[in-house]
Amino acid sequence: MASGALYSGTKPKVGGVRFAASQPEEGAHSHVHFDEKLHDSVVMVTQEKDGNFLVKVGFLKILHKYEITFLLPPIQRLGKDICAIPLPNLNLKVISITPVAEGYSVKCEYTAHKEGVLKEEMMLSSETHDGACVKVVVQARVMDRHHGTPMLLEGVRCIGAELEYDSEQSEWHGFD
After folding, report:
1. What's the per-residue H, E or C state across 109-156?
2. Rounded-to-integer distance, Cα 6 and Cα 9, Å
3. Which residues are CB-neighbours of 163 under 8 A, at least 6 positions away?
4. pTM, rounded to two decimals
5. Rounded distance, CA 58 to CA 64, Å?
6. CA separation for the pair 70, 32 (Å, rounded)
7. Minimal CA–CA distance to 91: which of 106, 107, 105, 109?
8. Of 155, 132, 161, 135, residue with least CA distance to 61
9. How far apart are the first and last CA of the chain?
10. Quick one: CA torsion of 96, 85, 68, 159, rounded to 10 degrees?
11. Are strands 53-61 and 133-143 parallel, antiparallel or unpaired?
12. Where would I find the beta strands (DSSP E) of 9-150?
């Protein structure tokens, strides 16, 4: 075989694939299992170097509204009582911020208005410490309507779909 010369001097790579010792019996169901470390199905919250937070909410579907709940760790400079600073954002609305033992439980509504990787911001402020605030960026990967239904992460719940405008369904017949 002439192609063998192309690979001379390289070592074969092994590992990663394992085969069952025997074939499963007829009618037996086989299952795929993922390592728990590789398949994490919860909203991911990471603290950036500047002290702000990035919240990754996974795949969402365009023109759908979601309720997103996530935990922020305790933020010393904000204290126990925090609130959202009102920002002019049509796509992200903070519903509640509740102090819990692990930090803060934040609940918000998010509207997936266009496809792609979208980032929307909210600002959280201390109710007692003047001027103390932290930025929280919610990042979503929004799919278009033709790519199926995404598997939502734990903490993300679809609460509705926006009406879609289709020009072919319009009753307007144009100018005469």
Report:
1. EEECCCCEEEEEEEEEEECCCCCCEEEEEEEEEEECCCCCCCCCCECE
2. 9
3. none
4. 0.69
5. 14
6. 29
7. 109
8. 161
9. 73
10. 80
11. parallel
12. 44-47, 53-61, 64-72, 82-85, 92-100, 103-111, 116-126, 133-143
Closest CA to 44 of 60, 56, 58: 56
Ramachandran region, residue 127 (left: φ > 0; alpha: ψ -120 to 50; beta: rest)? alpha
Kind of pairing between the strands at 53-61 and 64-72: unpaired
Which residue, among 33, 11, 36, 5, has the nearest Cα to 20 in the 3D structure? 33
Instruction: Give backbone dihedrals phi and psi of 142, rounded to 5 degrees, phi first.
Output: -100, 125
Q: By C-alpha distance, which of 57, 56, 53, 95 is closest to 75?
A: 53
145 backbone dihedrals φ, ψ, rounded to 5°: -70, -15
Digit-by-digit pLDDT tens for the chain (176 residues) are 444 444 444 444 444 544 455 555 555 555 555 444 444 688 999 999 998 999 999 999 999 999 999 999 998 888 888 999 988 889 999 999 999 999 999 999 999 999 999 999 999 998 887 778 999 999 999 998 888 888 898 999 999 987 765 555 556 666 76
Type of residue found at 91: N
